[in-house]
Amino acid sequence: MRLLLIGDIVGRPGRRALVALLPGLAARYSPDAVIANGENAAGGRGISRKIAEELFAQGISLLTMGNHTWGNKEIFSFIDDEARLLRPLNYPSGAPGKGWTILGTSAGELAVVNLSGRTNMAGPLDCPFQAMEKLLKEIPQLPVVIDFHAETTSEKAALAWFLAGRVSAVAGTHTHVQTADARILPGGTAFITDLGMTGPVDSILGVKTEIIVNRFRSGLPRRFEVASGPAQLAGAFLELDGLGKAIAIESFCEFIDREEEEGGTGSDI
To answer: Which domains does the chain have, with CATH numbers?
Structure first.
């Protein structure tokens, strides 16, 4: 089974990069499915129904979310009905949507799980380690791929080692900076601390640089705005054997050089 895992799509530049670059990546890797994080897809914060449908139309098989799941309130009107959209599994009981699903591909089925870290992350979250331990007792015997949306490298690595040999892959998202540590852990679990960002290159984590610089210099809050200009698509290629063990993981970052203003804004990344 061959998969493309795509890092946080940020605003219009990220969506533009996806349209321009995903066909070439699909030709290069011949994936059986494409999984992308879409929690910043609408103006840098949350996702709308229209944008979700746009991403699916471009070849995304499944969208995962994160701490900005509820950033666009429109999501409450469709998250329960959209089978291809996940929010973190360890949100409190009663949260709309679902945290995992079985995804059918041309090479068979796999389970995809969305988790959120707790270290330096806002909100009342259940323990991701306990949530996965419980889920693995209930989940069918399928390959399991996890999008772990977390802030710290240590929490991401800890979860990967905790699950080594029991899941197919743990791919980190959220920090918007791709890490150079893609590897296969003992037992056949692929791991990368962060897939990186799919969005504007000349930015600070997707936001206009002057806004973030001024926040650090003044200590005063400012509304975040997605940057414009050249964009990138970052992620990783993952290959699993017939037993669901990872046999290859390769990170990538592709670029397009186009200027276009981003229309949406958000209060946080």
So the answer is: 2-256 (3.60.21.10)
pLDDT digits (tens, 9 = 90+) for 99-147: 999 999 999 999 999 999 999 998 899 999 999 999 999 999 999 999 9
d(CA 137, CA 140): 8
Based on the residue annotation, tell me whether 149 is a catalytic residue of this protein.
Answer: no
Largest CA distance in the chain: 55
Q: Which of 68, 149, 174, 176 is catalytic?
A: 68
In this structure, are residues 86 and 100 in contact, taking their beta carbons and an 8 Å threshold? Answer: yes
Q: pTM score, two decimals?
A: 0.95
